[in-house]
Amino acid sequence: MLSIRNRYLFAPIKTGYSDGSGQVTDRHLVFYRERSQHAGAVISEPFYLDARLRELPTQMGIDADDKLDGLSRLVETFHDAGAAAVAHLNHPGRMANPKIPGNVFLSSTDRPCENGGATPRRMDGTEMDRVVDQFASAARRARRAGFDALELQLGHGYLLAQFLSSFVNDRSDGFGGDFEARVRFPLRVVDAVREVVDLPLLVRVSGSEMVDGGITVDETVQLARKLRERRVEAVHVSAGTVCSTPPWFFQHMFVPKGKTWDMAEQISRRGSVRVVAVGQIADVEEARSLQKRFADGYLAVGRALVADPDFVGKCLGTVDGPVRPCLACAAGCLGGVRSGRGLRCLVNPRVGREHLVDEPTDKSLRIAVAGAGPAGLQAAATLQSRGHHVDLYEKNEVGGQFNLAPLTPKKRSMRKLIPYLREAAERAGVRFVAQEARAEDMKRYDAVVVATGAKHKVPHIPGLDHYRWADILADDPLPSDQHVLILGGGLIGVDVATALIPRGNRVTIVKRTTDFGEDMEMIARNLSLKMLRESGTTFLDHTNIGRIDGRTAHGQRNGEPITIEDVDLVIVSTGMESVDELARELAGKLPVWTVGDARKVANAKDAIEGAYLTAREL
Ligand SMILES: Cc1cc2nc3c(=O)[nH]c(=O)nc-3n(C[C@H](O)[C@H](O)[C@H](O)COP(=O)(O)OP(=O)(O)OC[C@H]3O[C@@H](n4cnc5c(N)ncnc54)[C@H](O)[C@@H]3O)c2cc1C
Ligand SMILES: Cc1cc2nc3c(=O)[nH]c(=O)nc-3n(C[C@H](O)[C@H](O)[C@H](O)COP(=O)(O)O)c2cc1C
Ligand code: SF4
Fold first, then answer.
1. Cβ(404) to ligand 1 under 6 A?
2. Given ligand 3 and candidates 347, 402, 420, 603, which is best to mutate, with the most ligand atoms within 8 Å of its CB?
3. 398 CA distance to ligand 1 centroid (A)?
4. Are residues 176 and 251 in the same domain?
5. Dihedral angle computed from the Cα positions of residues 245, 249, 253 and 259, in that order, rounded to the nearest 10 degrees
6. Which protein residue's CA is at the shortest distance from atom 5 of ligand 3?
7. Which range marks the domain in which residue 404 is found?
8. Radius of gyration for the chain, computed over Cα atoms and rounded to the nearest angstrom
9. Which long-range contacts (CB under 8 A, 24 or more apart) does 78-81 make?
10. What does the DSSP assignment read for 507-548?
């Protein structure tokens, strides 16, 4: 049995922090050091078994002995902080990254993932033997590097799941067909690893692939029984696949919380195995109740430990203070990895830059922060905690535009951000001033941080006399049974549409270009647009509205005249512009820094990050 100090594991999360060589870097070490402080064990990001099998150009490798020094340092980092070290081994199969030159794509099939990716080669016996060897030699290397346990990936739509899943596996050669045949190759890998190392084994599975024809809970129960016979330490029950159902894989805020826990419970009971439960464990009370529910098993926590490295300590009661909440948004973490810049976090600007220390100031200043949206709140908290005296002015509601974000049906988890930022600023000692920051009042400060955000642009359209903006999201009740014309189809237009549809409204969205929701996080975008399409929303791309005449909008679509009739309500979401008058008024009179949307219209992640990086320099 795995000998660890508690039952919390850090889930395997790709960081994208290597440098192209596959080596462990200092960035990994500082990131993992913080996540190892309280967890019983840390499961590493997936190590590649061969440089031609990478998911990311910046992934860590375990393919050769030149990686051993780095991997040993990684293990030491976990151990020094008191956590056991688990090496996560995965072969991506057809889900290797097609953008990485030289990558090889193998699978049980020769069909690519229906959502893109390279066309794989259907593996023959020799290739299957090679994969077994690759896992076995990675396992040996992990043991030499000092890892305490291994986790083998049999889920999430990667190679071994491509054999397990009848949705993918179309073979008829003894490795495809009925369950017994489909499970043969994955079990060969498990057996080979078992044979070469005597370390405890975790096996990651998708309890259900959440796709018609894919792996079901019943099949996973059967698999679990076979794994129990092979004395695996625990079956780690996630869901979804990287190809067909990424929202389940990443446990995005758009999928319901708790389904994976139910799957884990069933698999544990019916398969008589110890399980690891995972998925949106981000609340202390909930985690404590799951500890009881899975008393004999483990809890894996991913993003909640990215957002707040002390989350497990807070669950165990060894660390005080509010949890910096993971919103399950995937914007900073998955977004950061996909962008190539590496794992980041919307709520925690230190993720990926853990080496930064917020030095106390050697000259305490009186600083006014104008605007208490995400940027102002973050700037104020950081400045005050470094020893400055901060007055935070807000003329409306603390939270700014972001107060509207959780009012869209699937984004409720975002409601945790503003109360957290507010509490962090209050705890730091920031003084809240519920009034407008006017230039004449700022003269008594040594410096001003302008975080006055952004306001919506109103297009010059003759006849556009009555309209609303995203503030309509705060109406209770929302309008119902209306024909709503939304001018502009970016994040705000799409969010408003998704809130209006369930109220029986008919929605038409017009956009000058084609890229609806272009500024949205990718999973939220895909699922929102899918929902809108399925509910009959009319999308008019390349459309320009030139005039509104009563209930009729007139314009051009691809150069042709177009009219939109029976419009009851117009929503304007044609972009935002910075509110930066205060900065301009104060320029040259006082030291002024502008942060967040007031500096450049973007999103909450950039607002918080920019505010933090500015505030730590003042
Ligand atoms: C409907 C909607 C959904 C969104 N969804 C997301 C999302 O899912 N993810 C994401 O990352 N971003 C989202 N955003 C964008 C995000 O809310 C903004 O990018 C972010 O709030 C910008 O933060 P900020 O602090 O710079 O500005 P703001 O949030 O605009 O805050 C500025 C604050 O300053 C105050 N203020 C202005 N002038 C003064 C003054 N002179 N004195 C005192 N106070 C003043 C304002 O009242 C306001 O409270 C969404 C926005 C909207 C409207
Ligand atoms: C950016 C990111 C990368 C991830 N990479 C992997 C991966 O490579 N392999 C894997 O099995 N799971 C991966 N996961 C899934 C996590 O291990 C975990 O199952 C998921 O985030 C749900 O748990 P959480 O809600 O506690 O974060 C990743 C998740 C995120 C957010
Ligand atoms: S970016 Fe969002 S989902 Fe990812 S860790 Fe941070 S808060 Fe959680």
1. yes
2. 347
3. 10
4. yes
5. 90
6. 303
7. 366-454+577-615
8. 26
9. 78/32, 78/36, 78/41, 78/42, 79/146, 80/33, 80/36, 81/33, 81/36, 81/37
10. EEEE-SSS-TTTTS-HHHHHHHHHHHHHTTPEEE-SEEEEEE
Identify the nearest ligand to the CA of 10 by its number.
2
Residue whose entry in the numeric block shows the structure tokens 């500024």 = 519
228-253 tens-digit pLDDT: 999 999 999 999 999 999 999 999 99
* Ligand number nearest to the C-alpha of 240: 2
Task: Check if 280 has its Cβ closer than 6 Å to any atom of ligand 2.
Answer: yes
3-state SS assignment for residue 204:
strand
Number of domains within the chain: 3
> Quick one: which of 79, 86, 73 has its CA closest to 37?
79
The encoded tokens of residue 107 equal 């699978």
- Which of 333, 348, 413 should be mutated for ligand 3, with most atoms under 8 A from CB? 333
Residue 321 lies inside a defined structural domain of this protein: yes
Q: Is residue 427 part of a domain?
A: yes
* CA 565/CA 542 separation, integer angstroms: 18
0.85 exceeded by the pTM? yes
Judge if the beta carbon of residue 303 lies within 6 A of ligand 3: yes
Contact at 8 Å (CB) between 43 and 151? Answer: yes
Quick: pLDDT tens for 40-83: 999 999 999 999 999 999 999 999 999 999 999 999 999 999 99
Residue with tokens 């593996």: 123
